[in-house]
Amino acid sequence: MKKTFLLLPLVAAICGQSIAVEPAFTLKDNDTWVMAGDSITAQRLHSNYIEAFYRTRYPQWHLHFRNSGIGGNRAASILARFDYDVAAWKPTIVSIELGMNDVGVSNPDSPEASADYIAGMKKLADQIRALPAQPLFISSSPVNDGSLMEAWATVRCRTIHPFTVALLELGQKENLPVVDQYHPLIQLWGPNKILEDASNLAAHIRALKPGHQVPELETLQAFGNAWVGKPSGISLGGDSIHPGPVGQYMMAATILTALCAEREVSSATLKPDGTVMEAKNCKITDVVAKDGKLAFVRLDERSPWPLLPAAGDALKLMPEIADLSRYTLTIAGLPAGQYRVDMNEKTVATLSHEVLAKGWNMSPVLEGPLGERAARIMKLIDQLQGPLNEAWRAASKERNPEKMDAAQKSIDECEAKVDAACQPEPIHFAIEPVK
Known about the structure:
By secondary structure, the protein is α/β, with parallel strands linked by helices. The chain folds into 2 domains: 2-189 and 235-258, 3-Layer(aba) Sandwich (Rossmann fold); 263-435, no CATH class. It has 14 helices and 16 strands. The chain has helices at 12-15, 39-42, 46-57, 75-85, 111-130, 155-174, 182-206, 217-226, 245-258, 311-317, 320-323, 353-358, 368-398, 401-421; strands at residues 2-6, 24-28, 32-37, 64-69, 93-97, 134-138, 178-179, 264-270, 276-280, 282-290, 293-300, 326-331, 338-343, 346-352, 360-361, 427-433. The strands form 4 sheets. The chain has a 5-stranded parallel sheet with strand order 4-3-5-6-7. A 5-stranded antiparallel sheet has the order 10-11-16-13-14. A 4-stranded mixed sheet has the order 9-8-12-15. Strand 5, helix 5 (111-130) and strand 6 (134-138) form a beta-alpha-beta unit. The longest helix has 31 residues, at 368-398.
């Protein structure tokens, strides 16, 4: 069974023209996806989050992901190491996520700079297809420096814009799938960073005293005092080029959205008397309705995207993350009031009867069995893509078959644990009115 996703024209509204393309991107059982890139990929954050999404969305499949990120890499860098650090994995999919360093040349505005980048990406596409494997190009993320379109804070962030446009044009010309994460993210990150910086500056100004002899102190203090109670922005973590988990959950969500990742997890609808009206991609058993309390066991065929605590702040800035995992529970016909929802005897939410009647998406729940499961899965994936993956890459670079075999054995053992952790487990639900 194959799943086919189409890319969306994400930059059309911003660039004023439809330059994104829509070739098919296919994911199937036993695929090996090599994620090649620079230091942002090497962080093993958004790449691991994407891996976790697909592993839990298709737990019956055996998928393989390999991180091939190295700090400072440009298109030419990956071409130089392509044989032992990309092709050696025998991939069926190769994603190339570059641009941050390609624009960091001495004269990024010169036609030669973007031409070199595009020429390198074209060579990479040809080599990937020759393996044969599916190529997938992903633009650089923006610099988190407060830049907005046509109001850039740095040359580097400004230059990523035309490089991304050129990459999309290459995709159109060569019928290559290209994900543009730069333009969607700069719309979110830019205003947020301006708020964050303004709030930090206002707090610093409020700490100033006349003895500090700062010019225009009264004017500055008026600004600082006026900012009290205003929005403070959300920290993406990390630095301006390498976001932390908050920013990288947003990157992963942007990429998954562009790939038209399958959003439906499962849904269940019950009545307060225990009648099961619908159970899609799940089974509802052991239903008990007594004294206003409704309890049941739910076993899903697939699971929501594993979200770590950092995803909480990412959801504040990008609520659409939750819609990538439609994991819903509906209780139709409850009396008016507030209801406590327990999962495996742990309270995870207090909701109104209106929310439960409309259908509650549980995927943003970051504690209880969902949070514990997310932590378990992400820990295993980090081990897989960290020391185990790096040991294999080092052995491949050395052309050492014995070390490669030993590293592959460790990878296989860890992947078996990841596959097991991604299998859905029954969850005991209890919904009762708050007294």
